[in-house]
Each structure stands twice: as C-alpha cells, then as structure tokens.
C-alpha cells in the first residue's frame, strides 16, 4: 500500500474518484441515513480499490451496469482512521455501495425538537472536517481526491434541505431512484419529498455539507441569501448583520481574482454548532453567536470568504501541509487549543496560512489598518502561546509536519495560521506588496481547483520570484521549529491603548465612556483578558454597573466578563454563567467558562457546579464540544 495521506486509507496506486452520486434517505427517529453511493472513476479499472469508512454499516457493493455483487472487505478498526473498505474491481468505471450511518456518526449532529429554536421539528447538520466525511458515505476521504457530486436527499415533507452545492429542485420522490436504500413504497411515502443538488466544481471531501430542518431564508444581496431556522427574528437579525457581504466579496475579488463559486450563501445553525464558522463552498455554516447586532460578525465571515480562494479553491494535499490553507488569507484565527473555535482543522495547512493572510487583507481594506494590525497582534500572542504549548513536541511548531499516526484533531493549533501568515508577510516585506499581490493572483490562477503541497508552493515561489531563496531561508520557515528570527512582532496602537487602560484599572480608574465608545467585542475581550486575575469582586461589579457587560448580546464581551467574574468569586453572576453555558454550544465560549469555574483553587462547590451544569447541558452540545469539555473537566475535577 502506498498511502497519499497519513489520515486516509487511499492508495496512490489506485485511481481517484472523479464524481460521486449520492442517494440519501433520512430517518430522524433512528438518527440514521441510508445511502447509495455511486463512485465514478476516470477510466476502466481492474484491481483493488480502497476507500475510507467510519461507523458505517456496508450491506452490499454492486456493479451498477450488471447489478452483480462485487467482492469487498472491511479492515479492523483503526482508532483514528476508521475502517478501510476494499473492493475488487474488474474493468469497471463505476461502483455502487449501499450503506447506513450510525447514530454516533462523527460528522452528523441530530437535534431533537427541544434542541432547536422553534422546538417543533428535528434538525440535522454535518461537519466533515477534517476526516469525518467517511462517517456519512464511503469515499477517498483525503483532500488529494477532489470530486464533483450530485445528491438526492429524501426527507420529511415538512422539512427542507440546504447543501454546499447548487440547488436543482424540490419535488415528489420517484420510485425508480431509490437505488436500493429502502423500499420504493417507503421512498415514495406521502410524507416525503426529495431535494436535489449538484456540485459542478471539484471539492475535497471535508467540504461536503448539508443541513435539514425547518428552514427559512432572507435575500441579502445578489449573490448572498441567509438561511436559518424559520424564526423571523433570527432571519431578520442575520440579514441585517450580513447586509454588507457584497462589498466584502468585491474587495476579495479585487485582491485575489474572480469569485469562482457563483453563490456565497450563509446558514446560521442552531446554538449547538461548536465552531465560529465552516467555509463550505456556496453555503458557509455559522454559529448564531456571530449575530452581534453591530455588523461585527462580518469579520468571522470574512475569514470564511477568504477560503473561497485559499482552501476551497486551492487545497493542501494532506494535513501535513495544512499551513497552505490557513496561513495568509485570513484574519482572526481561533485555535483548537486556545480559541477552540474554527477547527477548520489541519487539513488545510497550506491554505490555512494563506487564508489568514487573505482575511487580514480583506479586513484592512474594509475596516482599516488599525483593526488589521490589532488582528495581527492578537495572532502573534496566540502563536507565542502555542510555541510554549508544543515545547515538548516541537514537530508541531513546523509548517510542514509529520503526522503519521496522529489524530489531526489532537494537534490543531494556531501554528499553521499564524506562522504561515508570518511566512507570507515576510515574503511580502521582501518583494513589496504590489509584487506580492501579482504573485498571489498568479498562484491562485495557476493552482485553482487543485491540491498542492509545500514543495510545489516553494518551487512556484522560486520560479516566479527569482532569487527569493537567497533572501529568505525557505527551509527554515517551512521545516524548522519555533518562530524564525526574521518573523516580525507587529505594533498595534489599539492594543497599546487597551493595555494602558488595563494598567490604570489596576490603579483604580475605570475607563471613561469616550475611551470605549467605539469598542466592539474584540477590544472589550482584550481589555478584560488583560485585567489582573486578582481583581476584587467589587471592581467587577462596578465595571458591570457602568457598561452592563454581563448583559451584552456580544458573546465575546459577555463570556470574557463572566470569566473575570468567576475568577473574582462573584457568585452573584453564577446564574448568568449557567444560563450562558446552556444556551450556546460554541467551544470558543464553553471551554474558557468551564475552565474558569473548575480552576477555582480548592473550591469543591465550584467543581460540583461545573459538573452539574455540564450534565444538564451536554445533550445539547455537539459531540466535538462534548469531548472538549469532558477533557477539560477530567483534567481539573
């Protein structure tokens, strides 16, 4: 076996799938999906074909032309990769696989009606990054295998579906299309409807996404519609929050070239969604906490938009080159270890750094240099922290890493985002922004809809910027550990002002209203984080009386304040803390609040409070969030 990816069973000697046709039957009572997966290969192939699966029940594998069964076998379970499905082919170009998901599928969250906004209908949504598509259908679950796909979703008539794909139609089921996933009489039940979609551009499997529930929508701009549960106040607030998306998209196009995905729609998910956002092409998934009623939620969306050029359009071949996805085209990256939020995991090393860079360029154009510099400063702070986190395993401070036998979720950090950003920023400083902008557009135009690795990027860089290897130590930047000496710590006037105000707070002076009048969540969060942990409870209460931070609709502000209140033993706020932990599912807010509670030295009452709240709230959390909080509690309780 010659694997193409340490996190996939895909064999480099086997052909890569070019198209997948999916037929899904959703059974909400059992929290399962019965599926028919039709894989198409580029040419007739004879020999073994190995696919990735996890927690799938595979009932049969069929030649779709002759309808004859094909031999197949499942390997023993690997705790990280799942099971390989190996099929014996004889001059076939297509293979049909019938399977069923498990209720514990790592890519799916099934919500009962009480877990939704309206509390009348169930809901299900996907999160396939980094290696979870294999828990929905058998596939070559690696970014190296970009595929086009079509999908037919058979769902209850009272619900509707969206996908990260073009919607074809909503119609009555046809008996000829069930493909064996269920009896025709079940497929064509009076209470069922089919939603049909097609993705005409090749994508990596981790970008496969859908949601099914009681959905509504609002048109925002010509290329953007906002979807959410059919709650008018949620839809109206989302439409208002993201009213400026067309202008942000135009900035991205001026910087990086044409937007290739036609639509940039947004789905605001139920509160249990554990991340800030997920950059699915054509349909970005968002947490409802990005609706802050001040349009600042557009910064999260700016990062997901930046992925439209890096990550989605150009993808790293595997997780070992993740920086190529995140490092440069995006602004405020939240790491799994510290921000515990974005979790566009390690599969985008190359585009993660590129996306961080791209996002910051978009933010600079839309919000100004001061805000962009603030974001760079925040990123630097978290990069330094992650370097300390990995001091005993410096392999994961490299941009180009070795991850054989490593769960990509376990080593997620800001390193690919922020060290990758620093690398691209270093190149920009060396050759100048105009030249670097020309290079970026050429890079995107050359590699769009492809997967690349670090060596391919460096070869392209050296070919298009002659002599760059003599000015910058490219090997040190990509294969060296730690922060290179020619990285640059940014200077932010806003950050300096905030630190100055926190120093004055230590001396007993509250910030004046004119000093904080233009602050949004990011500035307040920095201010609160920089206050001393030994702050008096009376000071916390006085600050809240002045600015009503515990009542803020912006969760960055609210959670940062509640952390401070917990640290100061302000038990009057524990009711607000409990309410917050039960109404949101975003890891960015859950983890620091639970951590603050259980770190109260020797306070068994606080630890018991944390255990009780988690036991009452955990069923409403996503499995990813459950695992994070369970790990946090087990460490301290």
From TrEMBL:
Q: What is its main location?
A: cytoplasm
Active site location: 304, 417
Cofactor binding summary note: Binds 1 zinc ion per subunit.
The record places domain Peptidase M1 leukotriene A4 hydrolase/aminopeptidase C-terminal at: 493-633
Q: Where does the record say this protein resides? A: Cytoplasm
Which cellular components does GO assign to this protein? cytosol
Q: Does the keyword Plastid apply?
A: no
Which InterPro entries does the record match to this protein? Aminopeptidase_N-like_N, Aminopeptidase_N-like_N_sf, ARM-type_fold, LTA4H_cat, M1_LTA-4_hydro/amino_C_sf, M1_LTA4H, Peptidase_M1, Peptidase_M1_C
- Report the superkingdom from the record: Eukaryota
**Residues engaged in binding Zn(2+):** 303, 307, 326
A Gene Ontology molecular function term for this protein is: zinc ion binding
Q: Which UniProt keywords apply?
A: Cytoplasm, Hydrolase, Metal-binding, Metalloprotease, Protease, Zinc
One Pfam assignment: Leuk-A4-hydro_C
| GO terms, biological process | proteolysis
Cofactor(s) for this protein?
Answer: Zn(2+)
Instruction: Indicate yes or no for the key word Zinc.
Output: yes
Can you tell me which family this protein belongs to?
Answer: Belongs to the peptidase M1 family.
What name is this protein filed under?
Answer: Peptidase M1 leukotriene A4 hydrolase/aminopeptidase C-terminal domain-containing protein
């Amino acid at each position: 076996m010659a694997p193409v990816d340490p996190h996939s069973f895909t064999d480099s000697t086997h052909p890569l799938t070019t198209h997948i046709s999916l037929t899904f039957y959703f059974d909400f009572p059992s929290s399962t999906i019965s599926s028919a997966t039709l894989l198409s290969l580029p040419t007739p192939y004879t020999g073994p074909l190995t696919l990735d699966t996890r927690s799938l029940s595979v009932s049969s594998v069929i030649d779709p032309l002759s309808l004859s069964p094909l031999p197949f076998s499942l390997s023993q379970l690997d705790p990280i990769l799942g099971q390989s499905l190996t099929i014996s082919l004889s001059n076939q170009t297509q293979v049909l696989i019938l399977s069923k998901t498990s209720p514990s599928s790592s890519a799916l969250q099934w919500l009962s009606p009480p877990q939704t906004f309206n509390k009348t209908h169930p809901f299900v949504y996907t999160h396939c990054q980094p290696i979870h598509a294999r828990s929905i259908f058998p596939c070559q679950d690696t970014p190296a295998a970009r595929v086009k796909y079509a999908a037919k979703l058979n769902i209850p008539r009272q619900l509707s579906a969206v996908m990260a794909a073009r919607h074809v139609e909503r119609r009555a089921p046809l008996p000829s299309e069930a493909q064996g996933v269920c009896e025709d009489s079940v497929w064509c039940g009076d209470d069922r409807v089919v939603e049909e979609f097609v993705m005409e551009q090749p994508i990596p499997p981790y970008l496969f996404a859908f949601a099914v529930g009681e959905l509504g929508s609002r048109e925002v701009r010509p290329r953007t519609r906002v979807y959410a549960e059919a709650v008018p106040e949620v839809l109206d607030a989302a439409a208002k929050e993201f009213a400026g998306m067309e202008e942000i998209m135009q900035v991205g196009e001026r910087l990086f070239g044409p937007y290739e995905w036609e639509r940039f729609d947004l789905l605001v998910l139920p509160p249990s969604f554990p991340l800030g956002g997920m950059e699915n092409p054509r349909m970005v998934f968002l947490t409802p906490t990005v609706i802050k009623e001040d349009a600042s939620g557009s910064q999260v969306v700016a990062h997901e938009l930046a992925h439209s050029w890096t990550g989605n359009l150009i993808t790293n071949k595997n997780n070992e080159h993740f920086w190529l996805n995140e490092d440069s085209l995006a602004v405020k990256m939240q790491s799994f270890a510290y921000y515990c939020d974005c979790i566009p995991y390690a599969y985008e090393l190359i585009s993660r750094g590129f996306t961080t860079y791209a996002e910051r360029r978009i933010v600079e154009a839309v919000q100004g240099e001061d805000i962009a510099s603030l974001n760079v400063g925040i990123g630097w702070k978290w990069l330094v922290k992650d370097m300390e986190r990995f001091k005993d395993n410096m392999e994961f401070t490299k941009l180009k890493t070795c991850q054989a036998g490593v769960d990509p979720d376990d080593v997620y950090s800001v390193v690919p985002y922020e060290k990758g950003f620093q690398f691209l920023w270093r190149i920009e400083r060396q050759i100048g922004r105009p030249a670097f902008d020309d290079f970026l557009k050429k890079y995107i135009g050359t590699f769009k809809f492809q997967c690349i690795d670090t060596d391919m990027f460096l070869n392209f860089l050296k070919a298009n910027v002659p002599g760059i290897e003599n000015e910058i130590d490219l090997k040190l930047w990509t294969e060296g550990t730690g922060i290179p000496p020619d990285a640059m710590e940014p200077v932010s006037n806003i950050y300096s002002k905030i630190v100055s105000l926190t120093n004055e707070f230590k001396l007993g002076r509250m910030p004046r209203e004119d000093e904080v009048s233009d602050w949004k969540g990011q500035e307040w969060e920095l201010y609160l984080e920089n206050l001393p942990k030994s702050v008096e409870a009376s000071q916390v209460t006085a600050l809240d009386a002045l600015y009503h931070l515990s009542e803020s609709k912006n969760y960055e502000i609210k959670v940062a304040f509640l952390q401070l209140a917990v640290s100061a033993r302000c038990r009057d706020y524990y009711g607000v803390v409990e309410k917050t932990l039960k109404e949101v599912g975003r890891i960015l807010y859950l983890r620091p609040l639970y951590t603050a509670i259980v770190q109260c030295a020797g306070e068994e009452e606080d630890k018991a409070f944390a255990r009780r709240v988690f036991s009452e709230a955990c069923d409403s959390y996503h499995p990813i969030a459950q695992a994070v909080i369970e790990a946090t509690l087990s460490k301290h309780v």
